Amino acid sequence: MNEIQKNKLNKIVVFGNILPEGLKKLYENYEVVNYLENTIESEEEFLKKVSDAVAIITWFTHKINKSIIEKLNNVRVIANYAVGYDNIDIKAATSAGIVVLNTPDILTNATAEIAVLLTFACAKRAKEAILSVLTGNLDDVSPSFMLGKDIIGKTVGVIGAGRIGKRYAIMMQALGCNVIYYNRSKKEELEKIDIKYAELEDLLKTSDIVSLHLPLNEQSKNLLDMHKLSMMKDDAILVNTARAAIIDEKALINLLEKGKFFSVGLDVYNNEPYPDPKLLEFPNVIILPHIGSATYETRLKMAEFLSETLIIALNGRLTELKNLVNKEILGQ
Ligand code: GLV
Predict the structure, then answer these.
(1) Nearest CA to ligand 1 atom 1
(2) Where in the chain are all domains bearing CATH 3.40.50.720?
C-alpha cells in the first residue's frame, strides 16, 4: 500500500462550509468528511461524528471544551480555521497529547481593514445615513444633516499590539491620526515610527477612537468593564473586532443608554451571530456579523495553509510548524 492509499484510511472531519478548493490537498490525500454545522449542539452527536477521525477542522464557533477533548479517542490534531483559539481548551488538548493549530498572519490585513471600516462607518455615521436613504427619510437633508467626525488628526488608542493591532495602528497613522497603543510589552517597531506606548487608563482617557485587538484569555476577559468604559471620552468611538467578552456588554449598553459614546462598531458581540436586540436599537451602534477575515482571498489562503500544516502535523513534523498553538506539546 503506498503512502497515499494508507492516508486515505485516515479520516479528517471538517466542520463548517470551508472553501473546498482550499482543502484540495486534504481531499486528495485523506478521507474527508464535511459537516456544515457551525455550533456543537450535542456533545454526544459531535463525538460520534469524530470518533474515527485522526484530525478535525473547527471554526471559532465550535466550543471544544475539556469534556469533549477527554473523549477524543483518535483525534491527534485540532486545526482551528481562525487565528483566535479561545474556543478550544488548550490545556486539556495538551494534556491529551492533541496538537492545536490556527491560522496566524494570513488574516492580519483583512481584519485590520474591517477595523478601519468600522472606524470610518462610526465616524461618518454610515448606518444612520444608509438607513435614511433606505427608508426614504430624506426631508431633513440640509447643510447640518448627519454631521459626523473627521478621522484626520484624531488620537487613536490601539489596545493589543499583536499582528492585527500593529497593522491597524499603521493604517490609522497613514490616515493622519496620532496613534498610541497599550500592550503587555512595548513594541520597538511601533515606537520607532512614533506610535507610542500608553498605560491603559491614559489611553482610554485621551483617545478619540479606541480599537481592540487582543486575544481573549483570563487577562483580557471583561477588560473593558463599567469602570474602564466610563473613563473613555463621552464622544469617543469604540471599535471591537477581537472578541466580544473583552467588553462587558451589559455595561456598554448601560452607558449607551445614558448617551455615552459617539458611536460603537462591533464585529464581535455576545451570542453571535444574533446580537442583543437592545444593541440594534441604537442608531450609533454598527454591527457586523464577525466578518473580520471574510474575504475570498484570505479565507482561501487560510484553508490552504491549514491543510498544509495539518498534513505536516499528522506526519509528526511538529517543529516545522509556525502555527502550533500548544508549543508545550513539543516537550512531551
Ligand atoms: C476570527 O475571529 C479569528 O480568530 O480568526
Answers:
(1) 82
(2) 3-105+295-331, 108-287
Cβ of 82 less than 6 Å from ligand 1: yes
Q: How far is the CA of 291 from the centre of ligand 1 (A)?
A: 9
Is 293 close to ligand 1, i.e. is its CB under 6 Å away? yes
User: What spacing in Å lies between the alpha carbon of 86 and ligand 1's midpoint?
Assistant: 10
- Confirm or reject CATH 3.10.129.10 for domain 108-287, answering yes or no: no
- Cβ contact 13:49 at 8 Å: yes
Can you tell me the distance from the alpha carbon of 109 to that of 235, in angstroms, rounded to the nearest whole number?
A: 28
Q: Which residues of the chain have pLDDT under 70?
A: 1-8
CATH node for 3-105+295-331 = 3.40.50.720
Q: What percent of the chain has a predicted confidence (pLDDT) above 70?
A: 98
Contact by Cβ (8 Å): 112, 162: no
- Report if pTM > 0.85: yes
Which distant-in-sequence residues (6+ apart) come within 8 Å of 116 by Cβ? 168, 171, 172, 175
Residues 6+ apart with CB under 8 A from 122: 209, 237, 239, 262, 263, 264, 265, 284, 286
Angle subtended at Cα 281 by Cα 154 and Cα 87, rounded to the nearest 5 degrees: 75
Q: Is the CB of 311 under 6 A from ligand 1?
A: no
To the query of whether residue 62 is one of the catalytic residues in this protein, the response is no
Q: What is the pLDDT of residue 331?
A: 83
∠294-272-18 over CA atoms, to 5°?
Answer: 35
Cα atoms found within 13 Å of the Cα of residue 135, Cβ hemisphere only: 9
DSSP assignment of 1-12 equals: --HHHHHHTSEE
Mutation choice for ligand 1 from 38, 59, 60, CB with most ligand atoms inside 8 A: 60
Q: What is the pLDDT of residue 1?
A: 44
